[in-house]
Please model this.
Amino acid sequence: MLVDDSSIDLFLAEKMIKISGLSNDIVACSSASDALDHLKQSELLPDLILLDIHMPEMDGFEFLNDFMRFPAVVREKINIIMLTSSVDVKDLARAEANPSVIKLIKKPLNTHELIKVVADF
Amino acid sequence: MKSLTPNAIRILYLDDEQDNLNAFKATFRREFEIYTVQSVSEATRILQEIPVHIIIADQCMPYCSGVEFLGSIINRFPEPIRVLITGFIDSEVLIDAINSGQIYRFVRKPWDEMELRNTIYNAYDSYRTTQQLKQNVAELEKTNNELSRFIYSMSHDLRSPLMSIQGVIKLANLEQSVIDPNGYLDIIGQSVHKLDEYILKVIQYYQNSKAEVINESIRFESFINELLEEFKPQNLSIDFQIDIDQPVDFIGDTFHISVILNNLISNAIKYQRMDEVAQVVNIEVKVNAAKTVISIADNGIGILNEHLDQIFKLFFRAKNTRRSGSGIGLYIVKEAMNKIGGKISVKSAPNKGTRFDISIPNRRVEEMSLCV
Model:
């Protein structure tokens, strides 16, 4: 699952992940609340969420707060990687420190890096 | 209580003799807004309620002298201008009171109406000037803050579309979907990279100027290796020679030191000579109980002698480099150095190379002496 308010970045990530062969089954959400709705309604949970930090209305950290309220069985199945163009020291530290986030990677998305992170987990 | 008249000069007059108070009021009541009191406690009550501009106090009062009273309220009510009025006074007391800033003027009793009036107007001018200055400083601080916050958030907003462009270039290369025999995508990529470097420097400048100094333990072996991880993969042709000698603990500010080393290492890499077969970046670290001395040297293009004293200036760009740059990096280095009390010097020879020597105090000494 991809969560990003930038339609260009969603398009890019979807294309690149497909080309890299990591996955062909991708849900793209253009806001954090869309993503939460999808997680609540869908039968099929994603293995991996690529989450942007800076989004209008609900940002990546607010998404994570809501995500923490999901049942543990759901949370355990989902790995979250944050993907951002931010270089704010506070943003980066908060992302690294969040218990739900396995890794923070920087835009532009590098699929080799992504595959390596996924493989390590 | 009567309401405050705008623009009126508000005066509090403290005197134990009712006759003086009455005389003062009779003379000046049409000109000024006057509060007369006979005791210190009354005076304090008025000061709490009413923002007076000028306090006039009689020196000879039974329980508390005028100088003592004016001195005692200076911290609680620093804004009003303080004037002392008296017939007799020990000149020593008066000199002390004026020199310690407790009193603006001294007026002799019985007062001359003209002189007292002038003193009041002068005191009010002084009040207004001080207030104006305070207001200006507050406004400047606010503008300054807003400006740097604006630059910071703008830099971040500029970055995300840039990263999208980089992403599109990557995707196009991956898909081989753009016919580009002249390498235009590559040129776009280089330009975007240049722009991004500039934005990152601006963000770094802001972070460096805002970051407080936090002292913690630094192991230079792992610290330098972590920094180099950022550079090594893109610069395989460069021989990084590291020599670290740290027999003692070092306490210092990780953020500012990493900003300094990052900039110096990236310069050492950037300003290599293209035709040099053995490109070298040499980093030496020597730590002792008082300080750490670090040198970062390269065998690159060097710096012209006439530029050496200018390289730390904001937006200075040397003319012989043919490299892209913002003219911010070394300025940030110098600012960061100032923050942590370090020193930096540079030696360079054109076409031979450049060597920066830095010295950063070891805060361990201070922490130890604090415990003693």
